[in-house]
Amino acid sequence: MEKFTNLKSIPSYLSLQNIDTDMIIPKQFLKTIKRTGLGKSLFYEMRYDENGKVIEDFILNKEPYNKSRILLAGKNFGCGSSREHAPWALSDFGIKCVISSSFADIFYNNCFKNGILPIKIEDQTVVELSEYSKRKEEIEIDLEKQEIKYGNKVKKFEVDSFKKKCLIEGLDDIALSLEKTSQIDNFEKNIKENSPWLLKND
Amino acid sequence: MSKTLYDKIWENHLVHKQEDGTCLIYVDRHLVHEVTSPQAFEGLRLQKRKVRRPELTLAVPDHNVPTTDRSKGIDDEESRIQVETLRKNCKEFGVELFDVNDKRQGIVHIIGPEQGFTQPGTVIVCGDSHTATHGAFGSLAFGIGTSEVEHVLATQTLIQKKSKNLRINVNGELPKGVTAKDVILKIIGTIGTAGGTGYVVEFAGDVIKKLSMEERMTVCNMTIEAGARAGLIAPDEKTFKYLEGKTMSPKGENWKKALEFWKTLYSDKDCKFDKEVNIKGKDIEPLVTWGTSPQDVSPITGVVPDPANEKNEDRKMAMERSLEYMGLKANTKISDIKIDKIFIGSCTNGRIEDLRLAADLLKGKKISSNVSAMVVPGSGLVKEQAEKEGLDKIFKEAGFEWREPGCSMCLGMNPDQLKPKERCASTSNRNFEGRQGRGGRTHLVSPGMAIAAAINGHLADVRKI
Fold it and tell me: Taking chain A, what is the end-to-end CA distance rounded to the nearest angstrom?
């Protein structure tokens, strides 16, 4: 996985609450067998009209927001379908950090597997940060220090220590889990003894 | 120390715990479908990794498959490639597949229980958010992303942190005409679409106990629509009876051992939940959604709410956007809303009991001339059973189309989609913007309410049929 480095960008702001993963990447783009190339279809129905023409006044279609690496959004971002195509599309578009007052669980987890940092912070701060989006001013994310820097202010945020480490070091968590193979072997031995109906081929 | 059912299952599956609370948990059963797995198998190939326990994984194509005659294959090229890729991957990695023309094929969350693949006390995952369905058997079942699918294939485990415990008690009795779908819509309407975020939900109370296994699946299925990844119900005699004799259920001595263990799966009497919600069964009416979030529910006897009465500005904005998308005016009577399409099916309501209930209400009647309607059975076995009982004839004679099994119009990845501004009474689980087709308008309802809408041509009260 690509390492997460500190970010500086003019944020884009979508104030809408409950932005679901169907909205982030609609069904017709789930037919791919690849992880790449979804950026152009991000928020498809908000970005393009029925004929596929660009809707000029949608924020992500406008300068400088079409180069935003940080997205600010209303609460419960990423609800609905578990499709990892949602973070793939965000990442492919260039967005590496999403800030909201709350996230849906599956989407939140999926972000970390794809080098995206979701930051959960109180509503008031999201609104405060949205002013920077409107004024086209950059804000900065420092994951190491767990800080959002804007103007002359600094806001601390919480992040799970293991997830943070994986992001910063770009770790492959499957490789980490495979290091625990002997523990998994032991666990399965236990199942075999105590719950033999669970392991089908033994 | 007394424990909740979720605590017990969690502890039973703990392979390793780090100091910071990050855990490695064992996965007993893994379901795979064509949409969220190709990149996971590709990841294994790139890293030269194997599937650790192929026999604990079961695959089925469901999202992309056409529901019309498919003996000649799939027309849509991308859909066909995705289904072929699943076939190829299953063969290469040794995973069992119920292929398109296998009569056991169907929606991934219908076939698991049907085969006895789903069992109490297990951890079950699938790259699909409606995996919570399997929680009806007292299993910890939840949806995962594709990276996690790859992780499970490679290690048969998942990296997780424990969630909090939420119990939702539905007490008393349900009034006539009110079904499991109304129960879960009521719950979502009460706690909101993010009300369960960070929790695993246990559904309890007299109403839940009285539900059949299939009705319990309907309730657990939509747990994710309340924000919780998993919802479960303690197994009981109904659960055991349902599983006895199923193809993949334990047999002989193993059945006895399993049964003995399954009987220990309940929340201890004095255990503590982080949060509890109580709902009275008698307060639940037949419900429909009016907006673009599953929490936007109203009784069929109600009216479309007025955003002007909403004090929270963000919520008000969301309501206005919903009403505009749905083409509805505030204060319109819900039962005055005209319908164009009826969809009966999905992992929420595509099981045999759903079809029986719908057919029973429909018998001898015709659908309104302004609607087109379809039934998509949840699996080939559901379809076969329904045909054995003559239900297909009732549907067809009334004007319904009788289709092949799959996810179909629940998400419209196959050709079953709404056209812009078409309005659908749907027994599925999501009414998001564009969910059933760009510009399509979805009203979530129970199968009985779908029949009421089909007969009347507008949303209507099932109790008046």
Answer: 35
